[in-house]
Amino acid sequence: MTSHPLFRRTALSLIIVASTLSACSDSKPAGPPPMGPMPVTVLEVQPQKIPTSIEIMAQTEGARETEVRARVGGILVKRLYQEGETVKAGQALFQIDRSSYEIALSEARAKSDQASREMKRLKSLIESKAISQKEYDDAASNNAIAQAALRQAELNLAWTTVTAPVAGTTGRAAKSEGNLVTVGSDSLLTSIYQLNPMWVRFSLGESDLAKFPGGRVSAKDVTGVQLVMANGTIYGKPGKLNFLATNIDTTLGTQALRAEFSNPDSQLLPGQFVRIRLLTGERDGVFLVPQSAVLQTEQGALVMLAGEGDKVTPRPVQAGEWLGKDWVILGGLKAGDKVIVDNLMKLRPGAPVAPHPPVVPGAPATTPAAAPAKQG
């Protein structure tokens, strides 16, 4: 019986596929080509001389922070300044209702005139001995009291216009128009801050104080003062210490200090949280390593080196303080060591790497090519 042509073609195809699979089963299975060494950026370190320093959290404050208070009570009818603007000494800031003080001044002036006339009248009589000395003395006393009351009434009326006691930058108004102002604890209307110079308050704790002779800091122990802004940049003007507490706070165990910085452009504002860097001398023979290159482990800090044969070599190090964006390494490295600064999470001890120096900004990147795969 003759087979159908379609059946013959199908059978032939199956035979060819089976032969191909059989031939492939005799060879090794194909896999991904072997990977080349991992490209890494290395920093060839050299010993350096760096300034020794201590960094502490701090807060800025105006050199003078003056409270503006009402000296007489009444209804606040007008605010005469824009909150946050710079004002001059003597500039009017608030107006308190004057009407009752104008009336009091008119009354005091009338009594003053009356007492003055009475004293002048009795003066001619005392000269002719028409009255007793006591009557004239009483009139003179009444006149003095009336003149003092007149002066007080004039001051009270003048004080209804609240002026700036010093020049500086104004704060938020503590009371609004229509509020009742009373003399005493409720008399605060606003504050004025003098921003140039700017003061910065901070304290040194026990661990920092232990670095100084006698466990306390003195002016001769500090060679310079820098201010580190919140974004990590160094404020452009150097500072100086203008206050060192002579005692240690028994509750906190800290020594209070204050630094002063020139602030002509009002770049610093009161209340900012910043960091103060006290320069305390120099240290020679240390290494600077980017913070990202230092790994913290249970055994301590370590770095990864591109060692002999460009193999990854872990190296325990003794890390000191931070200096900018770098760790200060006090021990564990030697001149010429190649510290790996990137791809650290992908590295394993003994793994081959392809090291290259850091890319200079603006220069074309030159990443070494991976080694070619071996031919099987």
Word description of this protein:
- The chain is of the alpha+beta class and 376 residues long.
- The chain has helices at 5-25, 99-127, 133-158, 206-209; strands at residues 38-44, 48-69, 74-79, 86-87, 92-96, 161-163, 168-170, 180-181, 188-204, 224-228, 239-244, 255-261, 273-290, 295-297, 300-306, 312-316, 318-323, 326-331, 338-340, 353-356.
- Among the domains are: 39-50 and 284-356, conserved putative lor/sdh protein from methanococcus maripaludis s2 fold, CATH 2.40.420; 53-61 and 213-282, Elongation Factor Tu (Ef-tu), domain 3 (Beta Barrel), CATH 2.40.30.170; 98-159, Helix Hairpins (Orthogonal Bundle), CATH 1.10.287.470.
- The radius of gyration is 42 Å and the shape is elongated.
- Mean pLDDT is 84; it is low at 1-28 and 369-376.
Distance between the termini: 52 Å
Largest sheet: 10 strands, antiparallel
Please give the share of residues in helix: 10-25%
- Beta strand %: 35-45%
Low-confidence sequence ranges: 1-28, 369-376
What general form does the structure show? elongated
What count of helical segments does DSSP give?
4
CATH class of the domain at 39-50 and 284-356: Mainly Beta
**CATH level 3 topology of the domain at 39-50 and 284-356:** conserved putative lor/sdh protein from methanococcus maripaludis s2 fold
What is the mean predicted local confidence, pLDDT?
84
What would CATH call the architecture of the domain at 39-50 and 284-356?
Beta Barrel
Radius of gyration: 42 Å
Order of helices and strands: HEEEEEHHEEEEHEEEEEEEEEEE
**Could you state the oligomeric state of the chains shown?**
single chain
Secondary-structure-based class equals: alpha+beta
How many E-type strands? 20
InterPro entries: MdtA-like_b-barrel (IPR058626), MdtA-like_BSH (IPR058625), MdtA-like_C (IPR058627), MdtA-like_HH (IPR058624), RND_pump_MFP (IPR006143)
Family: Belongs to the membrane fusion protein (MFP) (TC 8.A.1) family.
Keywords: Coiled coil, Signal
Pfam families: Beta-barrel_RND, BSH_RND, HH_MFP_RND, RND-MFP_C
